[in-house]
Specification:
The chain is mostly beta strands. It is built from 8 helices and 22 strands. A 16-stranded antiparallel barrel has the order 5-6-7-8-9-10-11-12-13-14-15-16-17-19-20-22. A two-stranded antiparallel sheet has the order 1-2. It has a two-stranded antiparallel ribbon with strand order 3-4. The N terminus is likely disordered.
Length: 528
């Protein structure tokens, strides 16, 4: 079964998969242990804090990584657009342990004590990510009624958000069908809703450097089941800490590596770039996602403040695709599923953050090797047994800064991605993407984003030959170009409008009536 995953880790899949029912007891025990652990720590901290001031910030832990000569003194700090930090960076940059007001908060007119409060909340954001989830200042509730402050006193942070999307092919000859016979996302009007809640518990108060426990849940529902399918379960259950003055970062547990590797979101913001075609190479190679967390251990070594390498040893998702993994393990707690193996993945990158006179740059390359049991597409009737691998190279570069002395990350960016995998084990053999995007291009809309993305997905020769032998109409690749505007309407509220033209929106086989699609997309992302 083929599947294509959107930029936020949701699935545009083709075909149905058998549904198995994992053991209910294991889910209940694991979830109960996680809740019990966090609750007991919170109660212990509540008793401990009775003798100290509740608003005393945690001790600042500053990185002591070696700095390159001649580097501007501000280039190591996270520049911000609105309330969010620079996307596509390690969470050490996303959640800096700074007790003072950020430049963006001061520029926005927030009193210094208010800005300091949000800086304190930022220390409780999830660490270890390569994407940017909007911070507490960029949420609907912020700290209304002092609820977030009360939890922060106990060392607890949270973020919740809901993403609701609508996609429809607006071409008049779109070959409408019943939902049961729908072949691609948008062939019929397609709606999906994805809802998250993430909770963190701070362990730095116990002397653990940058220590954190993270627990998260995800619920998703789709009108077209191969696009999801529906599920309710965890999306992460993890432990994080650093060693050697933040030179080494450790994250272990049930992880969603689609948020920790490759940087597939255009602009890196979870509130934007939710539309458009995106590569399936990473997921068919076994990488975990929001809907398919798997046991993993991630280690990131920072050679300095710019150069890093990151290694993951992860239980791969099903070699039959994301939808099969969800159907076999909807709660996300199963230690293994049929035919899975171990995915070993390494990414090495170089990144500089936007600062006055310093352009944002992120170069990264990765390679993965998976011991799962794949079907050889050249000999599909033979027993499973083939292993798999993939690679990717990507780059993003700020080309021009709109306001270098204000929010330096505002400006125009360009980037590309190249990915590949063996054609005998994978339906997608090659993937190419070129992107041009702008953050805060207009002074009146300083946190909006505009993007234009062109892609080419090249199908496996073996899979194409099999389809030809079955006397189907086939195509060798699928090209697309998409344009998206993301409007930041209010704190925590994003509206995404997109239009995507796709030449051959189905996987490999097609009919003359479904050779093209012009998908209109609308989505809201609301953060709490």
């Amino acid at each position: 079964m083929g599947a294509q995953v959107t930029r936020c880790g949701q699935v545009k899949a083709f075909g149905d998969a058998p549904e198995l029912f994992p053991k209910q007891g294991r889910r209940v025990v694991a979830l109960s242990l996680a809740v019990s652990l966090i609750s007991s720590m919170a109660l212990a901290q509540s008793a401990r804090s009775s003798s100290i001031k509740s608003d005393t910030p945690d001790a600042t832990v500053k990185p002591k990584l070696p700095k390159k000569k001649g580097r501007p003194p501000n280039s190591g700090k996270a520049a911000e657009i609105g309330s969010g930090s620079v996307p596509g960076r390690s969470a050490l940059a996303q959640a800096p342990a700074l007790p003072h007001a950020s430049r963006a908060d001061i520029a926005a007119g927030k009193p210094q004590d208010e800005a300091s409060k949000f800086a304190r909340f930022n220390k409780l954001r999830e660490r270890g990510l390569e994407i940017n989830i909007p911070g507490p200042a960029d949420t609907v509730d912020q700290d209304k009624g002092g609820f977030r402050s009360a939890l922060a006193d106990l060392g607890i942070g949270y973020v919740a958000w809901t993403q609701n999307s609508y996609v429809q092919n607006v071409l008049p000859n779109a070959a409408r069908s019943t939902i049961a016979n729908q072949l691609y996302n948008g062939q019929n009007p397609t709606f999906n809703s994805v809802n998250y809640v993430m909770v963190t518990y701070d362990l730095t108060r116990y002397g653990i450097p940058d220590g954190q426990i993270i627990a998260g849940m995800e619920q998703q529902s789709w009108t077209w089941q191969p696009g999801g399918p529906d599920r309710l379960g965890i999306n992460t259950l993890a432990y994080y800490q650093t060693f050697f003055d933040r030179a080494l970062e450790l994250k272990v547990g049930y992880l969603r590596n689609s948020h920790e590797f490759a940087g597939t979101l255009v602009g890196g913001n979870a509130g934007a770039s939710v539309f458009g075609p995106s590569s399936n190479v990473l997921y068919q190679g076994g990488m975990s996602s929001n809907a398919t967390p798997t046991p993993a251990i991630n280690l990131r070594y920072n050679f300095d403040s710019q150069l890093y390498t990151k290694l993951s040893v992860q239980r791969s998702i099903s070699p039959d695709g994301v939808a099969t993994e969800v159907n076999q393990n909807p709660a996300g707690l199963n230690w293994t599923t049929p035919n899975t193996g171990i995915l070993t993945l390494d990414e090495t990158g170089y990144q500089t953050k936007a600062a006055p006179g310093v352009l944002d740059t992120w170069l990264r390359a990765g390679i993965g090797y998976n011991t799962a049991h794949y079907t050889n597409l050249a000999f599909p009737k033979q027993p499973r047994g083939d292993e798999n691998n993939f690679y990717y190279v990507a780059a993003d570069r700020q080309l021009w800064q709109v306001a270098p002395q204000g929010a330096a990350s505002r400006g125009i960016y360009g980037g590309f991605s190249v990915m590949g995998a063996p054609p005998d084990q994978n339906k997608v053999a090659q993937y190419y993407e070129a992107r041009l995007y702008a953050k805060g291009l207009f002074d009146s809309r300083p946190s909006d984003q505009i993007s234009v993305v062109a892609t080419d997905t090249v199908w496996s020769n073996s899979a194409v030959q099999n389809a030809l032998a079955a006397k189907n109409l086939v195509h060798n690749d699928s090209k697309a170009i998409s344009g998206t505007y993301t409007a930041h309407l209010a704190p925590g509220v994003y509206l995404n409008l997109g239009l995507t033209y796709i030449n051959n929106p189905t996987t490999i086989t097609y009919t003359p009536q479904i050779g093209h699609a012009l998908n209109f997309s609308a989505s809201t992302s609301i953060f709490f």
